[in-house]
Amino acid sequence: MNNKLQFDYYIGIDIGGTRTRVARFSDNFKLEKKSVIETPLYEKNPKELLEEISNKIQDLKKSNLKFAIGISAPGPCDTKMGIVKNPPNLPGWGEVRVSEFFKDKFDTHVCLENDANAAALAEYKIGSGKGYKNIVYFTLSTGIGGGIIINGKIYRGFEDSAGEFGHQIVLLNGPKCRCGSKGCLEAVSSGYAISRDALSKTLVRKSGILYEIYKKNGTIKAQDVFLASSQGDDISWKILNKAITYMGIGISNVITVFSPECVVLGGGLTNQEYIIDEIRNFVTTHVKMAPINKIKIVKSSLGDGSSLYGSILNIIELQ
Ligand SMILES: [Zn+2]
Question: Contact at 8 Å (CB) between 119 and 307?
Answer without folding.
Answer: yes
